Amino acid sequence: MRTLLAVALGVVMGGLGTVVHRYGDEPWHLGLILALALTAAAGVLSRAWAGYGTLLGFGVGWVAMVQALSLPGSGGDVIVPAGVLGMVWSYVGVAVLAVVAFLPSSWFAEVPARRNQPVA
């Protein structure tokens, strides 16, 4: 169930990031930076939620949505054009997910709760 929810999260984040990645001026593309940051945060959430399976599900949903929105629509319009900004969004987004996959496992380990410990 968690993996299916991670796929849905990937679809939502991929769609949201695709829509906003072109926002901003030439030297400072704020939309791209925010979209990549949200992709990284959702990837970390997915991996922390249940491990690599949910991260893989998130990645599949993200890639599927970004690629689907890269195809021409019925009127010939494309949301992710084949320019530099579109390529950066597509490829750096996948690289961000790869970085999340290679983060240390200790960052995602569950810490046992300490009970009735005297405060020093």
Notes on the structure:
With 120 residues, this protein is mainly alpha-helical. It is elongated. Helix 2 (30-50) packs antiparallel against helix 3 (52-70) and helix 2 (30-50) packs parallel to helix 4 (84-101). The protein has one domain. The mean pLDDT is 86. The chain has 4 helices and no strands.
- The tally of helices reads 4
Gyration radius from CA atoms, angstroms: 17 Å
List the uncertain runs. Answer: none
Q: Oligomer, anyone?
A: single chain
Sheet bearing the most strands, described?
Answer: none
Helix-strand makeup class: mainly alpha
Shape: elongated
Listing every helix as H and every strand as E from the N terminus to the C terminus, the arrangement reads HHHH
State which percent range the strand residues make up: under 5%
Strands, total number: 0
Helical content band: 55-70%
Alpha-carbon distance between the two ends: 43 Å
Mean pLDDT across all residues, rounded?
86
**Count of all domains:** 1
